[in-house]
Design goal:
366 residues; 3 domains; 6-stranded mixed sheet; 3-stranded antiparallel sheet; 10 helices; flat
Length: 366
């Protein structure tokens, strides 16, 4: 039996690595096609023809079989559909993709600089006080304190001898992610909704796996705002909508009002100015030309209402028009929040870095 070897290069991949990369690419295509498996497959076939992705060792059929075996895809009435496990894999792939682009040292954990009655044990110790968990007692330091006072022969343990390990004071956070689904998110042929969805998928996976006690809600806003399940995120589509930023903030604020968490925040991903509001009679007032003071002022009023309820708004702008930046600066000033002006490629990095830093800063400031 003969074996044919090719020259090894640093870029060489094992079959497992190739398969994993292809599955990650397929996840990205599913987000781009709003969960349409057949369309994602067509995109993958076109890419395969153009770049020679598949060969005799790994074919398109092999990939599909593997996805079915993993429970990512299932056949229903003769067509392949995405499963609940498939949605979870998309979230994980999005998280992996975004974190792989972060620079070393820019990611932290939810742990705060303060110590207190947390979970993670530190190497430092302190004197025992009422309420400290017995399981955190440092036996070595405690026994040493007793020996120093009375010696080994007259050993006697007192309350003053007890030392316990410090623990990290872990904060909890309630977050509403707002995603703009107005028509401008695909205007002029530029796809802005796909990276926005990928950020939402990655953020939700981060919270649900590493911080399962955190509250996370997803709000989409166009002409109106509505609460959307995290599982629906890959299937979001842009509509022929205006941008009712005020409605999105109102819904987010109402959701956060019912949360008992000390830390409350809104992450808003948008590329355009507010162009619609609901009037008192329920009629939708729209104006796509310039910055309408009537719409802007009502939106800024909502930002102030969020500030009064201690809800920080972090806005992530994917447009750099001067008049849009001026509006976001006004909104940020009104809320005492944060604003980020980034390209689409940097969006994931900014939102994750800010999420973890925001929790730490806000907790220590209290």
């Amino acid at each position: 039996m003969r074996f044919q070897y090719s020259k090894w290069t640093p870029e060489s991949q094992t079959d497992e690595q190739r398969l994993e990369n292809l599955m990650q690419l397929f996840s990205h295509l599913l987000v781009k096609t709003s969960g349409d498996v057949q369309e994602a497959m067509e995109w993958l076939r076109e890419l395969a023809e153009q770049y020679g992705i598949f060969d005799e060792t790994l074919s398109m059929e092999d990939l599909i079989d593997k996805l079915r075996e993993m429970g990512v895809l299932e056949e229903v009435n003769g067509s392949l559909n995405l499963t609940t496990r498939g949605v979870q894999k998309i979230r994980r792939d999005a998280l992996k993709e975004i974190f792989s682009s972060l620079k070393k040292g820019t990611i932290g954990s939810h742990e705060t600089p303060a110590t207190g009655s947390g979970v993670e044990r530190l190497s430092e110790t302190k004197k025992w006080s009422f309420g400290d968990m017995p399981t955190n007692i440092d036996l070595t330091s405690t026994m040493t304190n007793a020996f120093k006072r009375d010696g080994i022969e007259n050993f006697h343990l007192s309350e003053d001898d007890l030392e316990v390990y410090e623990t990290e004071n872990l904060s909890s956070c309630a977050t509403v992610l707002m995603v703009d689904i107005s028509h401008s998110m695909i205007l002029y042929g530029e796809d802005r909704i796909t990276p926005a969805k990928e950020v939402g998928l990655a953020l939700s996976e981060l919270i649900m796996t590493k911080y399962p006690k955190d509250y996370l809600a997803l709000v989409v806003f166009g002409d109106d705002a509505k609460l959307v399940s995290i599982n629906e995120l890959p299937f979001l589509e842009v509509g022929p909508f205006h941008t009712n930023t005020r409605a999105g903030l109102q819904l987010a604020r109402n959701l956060l009002r019912h949360c008992g968490n000390v830390n409350k925040q809104i992450f808003m991903i948008t590329d355009g100015k507010p162009s619609a509001i609901f009037e008192d009679n329920g009629r939708l007032y729209k104006n796509s030309f310039g910055l309408d003071p009537r719409i802007v002022n009502k939106t800024l009023d909502e930002a102030v209402a969020c500030r009064r309820e201690k809800i920080t708004i972090s806005t992530f702008m994917v447009a750099r028009d001067p008049y849009l930046i001026n509006f976001i600066e006004e909104l940020t000033k009104s809320n005492h929040g944060r604003a980020y002006y980034s390209s689409l490629n940097d969006l994931g990095q900014f939102i994750f870095v800010d999420y973890i830093r925001n929790r730490r800063k806000r907790f220590s400031a209290g």
